[in-house]
Design goal:
The protein is an alpha+beta fold. It has helices spanning 15-28, 40-47, 81-86, 103-119, 158-165, 187-198, 213-227, 239-249, 278-284, 290-301, 324-339, 355-363; strands spanning 7-11, 58-67, 70-80, 91-99, 124-127, 129-130, 136-137, 139-142, 169-179, 204-206, 258-263, 266-275, 307-315, 344-351, 366-378. It folds into 2 domains: 7-173, 3-Layer(aba) Sandwich (Aminopeptidase); 181-342, 3-Layer(aba) Sandwich (Aminopeptidase).
Length: 379
């Protein structure tokens, strides 16, 4: 491939370059009404090695591409030391990929990222992950016609074409499902299914109460690392990281959208669903003023829920055969259909190789509407 002499790539080293890195997406998506701009103050903190939680167990370099003197692309090259410890000691990652529709820009960015990771001893390149499987991840390859739900990625279709041209191949697909047809799950049917699943089991749903938040957070941490063990890319989170995430999640939580199943006093399954705030976040255009914070808080806690996003769900291994994950989804639908104007439930991201989960969601009226792909290549 002939490189364009008008293209240059530099490592991000100055505050001005970081601002160009952060603001480049506004150029890429200027004509895309579905794009949701990131909140810039949050992203500055997230990318800052002094403040971002990823950097407790990882390191990253950022690159900017210029074409004809203007910012035209960006990319991170990062190493997740926990992933290397538990999965592959020679795997490096890329993320935060954006590029104008010019293949040479993308090629130059990946040449710089690959050279950096080879110097670090890495022999594989995987991504996009921003920065891990618990952050935004995957290249959107299906479902370009709808606004992304909270914590989903969004990108132009040509990104996938560019990466295939550079030799990347699929490693793992993650799926998004929508449950929108309430007629497939009328209230009486939901009640009947729930009763059948729970009949004779020594388990029960218990209500979430704010005074129990800190107690449940610790138990959810233990269950989380057990439930996700074996999923692609999972690494055990340390307690401080998880509890910090739980603390930051608190403003988005509505007690009626948290479901907990216990046996005696032991937590055996949990799920958290949040109102999807992305339509409002899109209107903020990256700026979070005091008024914007108040609008988001009101929408998260008090406004009528039109769409929800299933954020996390886990069941202890020894209880998975009891179909408790089905019970939690049915419990959500029962509440939403009865008490809210909600007509859309987003369930994502579901690993594409979890066929029982895919089968369950389809049986519950879920429609596969987006696919997010992790790709890889040897360096």
């Amino acid at each position: 491939m002939r490189s364009d002499p008008q293209i240059s790539v530099v490592p991000v080293q100055t505050p001005r370059q970081m601002e160009e890195f952060l603001r480049l997406p506004w150029r890429i998506y200027a004509d895309d009404p579905l794009w949701v701009p990131p909140l810039l103050d949050q992203q500055r903190k997230f990318l800052d090695p002094r403040r971002g939680p990823f950097f407790e167990n990882g390191e990253a370099a950022y690159f900017l591409a210029y074409r004809q003197g203007e910012p035209a692309g960006r990319l991170s090259a990062h190493i997740n030391h926990l992933f290397n410890r538990y999965h592959d000691p020679r795997a490096g990652f890329f993320g935060f990929y954006e590029s104008v529709p010019h293949l040479d820009v993308t090629a130059a960015l990946f040449e710089a990222a690959a050279a950096h990771l080879r110097r670090k001893g890495m022999t594989k390149l995987l991504g996009p992950l921003n920065f891990s499987v618990y952050d935004e991840m995957g290249l959107l390859v299906e479902g370009f016609d709808t606004i992304p739900a909270a914590f989903q990625t969004h990108n132009p279709p040509y990104y996938h074409d560019f990466l295939k041209e550079l030799g990347f191949r699929r490693v793992m697909d993650w799926l998004g499902f929508l449950i929108t047809d309430t007629s497939m799950l009328p209230v009486k049917t939901i009640e009947s299914h729930l009763k059948r699943i729970l009949a004779g089991l020594p388990v029960k749903f218990v209500p979430f109460r704010w005074r129990d938040y800190d107690t449940w957070a610790g138990e959810v941490y233990d269950l989380f690392n057990e439930a996700w063990q074996g999923n692609w890319g999972h690494v055990p989170l340390n307690r401080s990281q998880f509890l910090q995430f739980f603390k930051e999640l608190r403003p988005l939580i509505r007690p009626e959208l948290v479901h907990i199943i216990v046996e005696g006093d032991r937590l055996i399954a949990f799920s958290i669903m949040i109102p999807d705030l992305n339509p409002l976040v899109r209107d903020l255009n990256g700026r979070l003023s005091l008024w914007g914070k108040l609008r988001l808080y009101y929408a998260a806690q008090y406004a009528p829920v039109r769409k929800t996003r299933a954020l996390v769900l886990g069941v202890r291994k020894n209880y998975r055969h009891l179909h408790l994950q089905h019970a939690m989804i049915l419990k959500y639908c029962l509440h939403l259909w009865r008490h809210t104007p909600c007509d859309t439930v987003d369930v994502s991201l579901v690993p594409g190789n979890l066929r029982p989960w895919v089968k369950t969601l389809k049986a519950l009226g879920g429609r596969h509407y987006k696919t997010f792909r992790v790709l890889g290549k040897d360096l």
